[in-house]
Amino acid sequence: MTRPRLSICMGTYNRACLLRETLAHLSDVCSDDVEIVISDNASPDNTQEVIGSFAKCFRHFRTVRQATNQGPALNFAAAMSLARGKYLYPFSDDDQIHMTGLQKAISIMEERPKIVAVYGRYEEWQRSTGQTVPNKPARPRMDFAQGSHLDIINKFSFLWFPVCRTDIFQRFSTFNKSSVGTWEVVGSFLRCGDISVIPDFFYKHADTEPRAEYKLTEGSEHDAIRADFESFFGRMGQPYPPESLAVWLHNRATPYYMLGARFGQAKHDLLTARHFFLRSRACGVATKEQIESWEKEAMLGMLAERILQRVELIPEIDTVVFEASPRLTALRQRFAAIAPKYSSMEMSEEAFRQHGLRSNQLLITVNFKSFESGAAADVAPTLALTDLVETCRLTDQPLEL
Fold first, then answer.
1. Of 12, 280, 292, 341, which residue has the fewest beta carbons closer than 10 angstroms?
2. Which pLDDT band, with edges at 50, 70 and 90, does 1 fall under?
3. Where are the alpha helices (DSSP H) in 30-155?
């Protein structure tokens, strides 16, 4: 059989419906010299049925099903290890490909065989509306000669997977289960040949929930980003003195904190967003104005999350009782919106005196163990608005609650 010109390699897990859409689109845009390679990470849904239904839609089609879940990185690597095309392109099972961009990359490598990988851009794609936004502004094509590691890493903050020569990737790729970023892969390519970065789009990146970017809300992901940079430099030796490298890593890694804040908000986890805003503030990535504005906007949501955190730690609690105060009305409504499985109610000071608090209830007052009148509310468990606010603060600016 004739060798494919290009292998499009996908890892997939438990997303049969999305995989069906992706394969349908690929069957429309791929020519007979394109191979589709899929590694199924032991999906429990009907992924195998979907894969089987497309087997005859492509001239070149290879699949493997893992016996057990290998994790996303190794599953992705498995697909790329099976590629038989002259060139390969790593691809996500929920995105949409731009074949013209891939063809442009291949033509560049055909014209200049010393180029072993070509990087392009992608578009952020809102699947529900079809709206797309470029991930970064277009730049003219830039070529980087073999060994020009410092030139490329100081020119670009981020390079995703390229169209590349299959033999080079399969022989020299460092991609493994601990891989997070791609800079170490970039370094491997530059040890073997030249790299080109072009303004053409390679794919549309879908906003599928849960977003892959939600990993940026985990502290370990930021450690891994830094580790990717360090691995890139470590393979070179020690291109910068330790003190200079520390400054370089600070300047390159800390902007990701704002992405952690952005995607914390996107997943409705405001306390995690707060964590990354605090780190951004300490590192000078976010301005004082940004921090103060966000604190005012997000305070009510953070307070509701704090209450939910406490309630979830006490199994017997199923009802949250709020002191009947105008200062707590909005908070009670916000809590009810994010915690529908818990009951919430208002209780006046008089009703508290008459009925007390049951064992399944948590009391929220304005002040610590007291009502606004100053009368004691010395029961447990109790939380106070003034205390909760302090646990959510980012600044000392005046706040109206």
1. 341
2. low
3. 47-54, 72-81, 99-111, 149-153
